[in-house]
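Amino Acid Chain and Its Fold in Token Form
===========================================
Scope: a single protein chain, as residues and as a discrete description of its fold.
Amino acid sequence: labelled as such and written in the usual single-letter residue code.
Position: the record begins directly beneath this header, with no further notes in between.
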Amino acid sequence: MAAIAANIYNQVYFFATQVDFSAIVNIVTLVSVNIFVSLLAGLLYMLSTSLFKERGVIVFNLAYSMGSFACVMIPIMFTLPLSQPFPELFPGLAVPMVFFPVIAWMTIEPLFPS
């Protein structure tokens, strides 16, 4: 779900700004990063629910949210190639995408009872 939302946002951002970041952020990159983050989140969820029993979900959601906020710095600190036009628009594309996996998790997780 997060990968689909990221791809849609990528297309909307391109049509809104007419700046192509496909050399840096493409479909393969978006899908692979979202799958990796989601698998890591699943493992951390299993770990937190096994360690903290009743409060495991709360601990996981807090850690996942705080981790997402900390990861906002990654696209801001990313150095773009000099040939890339309008590099100042890259954080506007990448920063919202950082939150897509956590939003997808917190949207879908209540649908599956423990």
